[in-house]
Amino acid sequence: MAAAKAMLDDIHQPLAMSRNDSNVYVFGNISNHNIVIACLPSGQYGITSAALVANNMRWSFPSIQIRLMVGIGGGVPDKVDVRLGDVVISNPTTSSSGIIQYDFGKTVKAGRFQLLGALNKPPQQLLTAVAKLRADHQLGPSRISEHLATMRERNPSMDAYKYCGAGQDRLYDPAYEHVGDSCDECDLSQLVRRDPRPSNCPKIHYGVIASANQVMKHGQTRRRLAHELDVLCFEMEAAGLMDSFPCLVVRGICDYSDSHKAKQWQEYAAATAAAYAKELLSVIPSEQINQGSMIDVNISPSRQYSSPYNKEYGH
């Protein structure tokens, strides 16, 4: 929750909540939008936990109009040059709503996985804002790096949220399994060679995010599903929200969905995702949000959302 809270322009006083709502909220504003942030309880993950948090929020804030699910996820670098710290945005395709539940389906001919059912798309208002921001980024750079610098300047103690360095961004061959307690013991000859990027500014990718009640930690399975389902990211909460609490999913990439998982990129990835969310909100005119509503930001441990609230909280 720290990264999302640090992106607020101002922090507001807490509101009295119902005893039936177990969520913990942070209130504030970004670009004239009032924001409420909720976080999954520490140590709780998965579709069911996310749905419970969203349900509590919906009861406490029935006028929520804009919903973002912001946090971290595992990248899929097999078809697209996704790197640690990059941001992946759920974006509908001709065959998907932008979010798929990859543990809900069946195995068919030749061992291919076939999805069953389809989840709702993000709200049209958010997809329109995404399209505008993508167009803006064709004309000039994103403001993610600017927002990260401001966050660090305002919060000097957030040292863990800084960029970890290209030398710590290690992508191994999908068939090479992790060895030892850390990647320091892994065979460097198994690293995938990639051209250095001209800058450390995170790239933004738009496409399909795969969600399930399990962590993806196998490089070869990641690669197979990348080709079968055309996914860019794996995560554990979004599938529990899309039908009853449609939202845009924003994930900062903290690992490569393989056995070489490490936690050192999690804070930075959470910050890049939160910075994108802040930039996205800046292109949504406050006049488009009905008076008396809010923006919801839902966060699993290191994940976020935004939502409209009541009374003096106008959007």
Automatic annotation (TrEMBL):
Superkingdom of source: Eukaryota
Protein name: Ankyrin repeat-containing protein
SUPFAM superfamilies documented for this protein: Purine and uridine phosphorylases
Pfam families: PNP_UDP_1 (PF01048)
InterPro entries, per database record: NLR-like (IPR053137), Nucleoside_phosphorylase_d (IPR000845), Nucleoside_phosphorylase_sf (IPR035994)
Nucleoside phosphorylase domain segment(s): 20-277
A single GO BP: nucleoside metabolic process
Single GO MF annotation: catalytic activity
